[in-house]
Amino acid sequence: MAPLSQASALALARLRAFKAPPSIYSSLPVSRRAAVLLLLFADRHGDLRIVLTLRASNMSSYAGQVSLPGGRADFASEAPFQTARREAEEEIGLPRNRFPPPYRIEHLCELPVHCAITELGVRPCVAYLHAGDEAGRAADIEANMIPRLNSKEVAAIFSAPFHKFLSDGKDEPQPANGSKRKPWYESMFNVSNDKNRPMHNFYIPRNQQVVGDVSEDTYRVFGLTASILIGAARIAYDETPNFVHRKEVGDEDIIRGLIKIGRMKDEKGTKGFLSREDLQAAHEAKNKI
To answer: CA separation (Å) from 20 to 16, 24, 76, 112, 232?
Structure first.
């Protein structure tokens, strides 16, 4: 594996230095808290990649969709990184404690909370998987650190180039054989979208490092997962995406607005679903004193 590229080294440094503003997360009921793990690693060229999963088709929420490893908090004192690491161990076999040498994991930062339509406050936790030992030797993560997916929850594990979540991919050359490649990025609006909040869609080509389900030519990343990845990449690379996007990273203000209108309550055993009208009401409520 090549040393980190300059861009990758700077991206990790920015993430280490990032301090999120005071968050609403710890004020939410435990039943409304969740966390996801953004696990970064360096590829053979020294560029950063992000680990993603395809959820199993039998899951009760987001079935068959691409997501980040993660899930709901178990108890009030469980920190976001603890939640994210526990769920990552269950879903993809990422150890919470001991790693086989020369691997080790570094917690970089937590990002502002995002709002899931399932009425959850989701805290993204960013970590970097090191693959070098004290002698300077580097292991090949893609070749050797093969995750062990939990087939009850995860159909496939794969990775994508982290920096590309700031690009619409229009500048990429088409295949030399003349065949048409599915676009890397598309944006769309539908009845459930705020007109100022496009739905981002990224299409990740299937490649040799997919573990599990390989029935699809591309994997579609959209919705909450896409928003989290865009925000994280903006912070890491200190760049603006070349497509229409929201200025804010996260939904802390929207969640405060939802609380004002009576949502995000501790209702164990129930699953909320936020409508466009709920989000519009929250947007208006957050601006009221």
So the answer is: 11, 11, 20, 6, 12
Q: Would you say 207 and 161 are in contact if contact means Cβ atoms under 8 Å apart?
A: no
Give the three-state DSSP class for 8.
helix
> Is 259's pLDDT higher than 60?
yes
- Give the DSSP H or E segment for 233: helix 223-237
Contact 225, 50 (CB under 8 A): no
Question: How far does Cα 43 stand from its chain's mean position?
Answer: 18
Chain centroid, CA 144 distance in Å = 23
Identity of residue 142: E
Q: Are 74 and 83 in contact (CB under 8 A)?
A: yes
- As given in the structure block, the two tokens for residue 126 are 């960013």
**Alpha carbon 268 to chain centroid, angstroms:** 25
pLDDT one-digit tens code per residue, 201-216: 999 987 755 666 666 6
Do 157 and 69 contact (CB within 8 A), yes or no? no
The answer to whether the Cα torsion of 79, 120, 230, 176 is positive or negative is positive
For residue range 33-51, list pLDDT tens digits in order.
999 999 999 988 999 999 9
Q: Which of 20-29, 94-103, 173-182 is predicted most confidently? A: 20-29
Taking the CB of residue 204, how many other CB atoms lie within 10 A of it?
21
User: Is residue 224 within 8 Å of 114, Cβ to Cβ?
Assistant: yes
Output phi, psi for 87, to 5 deg: -70, -35
CB-CB contact of 144 with 129 (8 Å): no
User: Has residue 179 got a pLDDT over 80?
Assistant: no
What is the distance, to the nearest Å, from the Cα of residue 155 to the centroid of all Cα atoms in its chain? Answer: 17
Q: Which residue has the tokens 């709002």?
A: 115
Asked, as a colleague might, if the bond just before 102 is cis with ω within 30 of 0, I would say yes
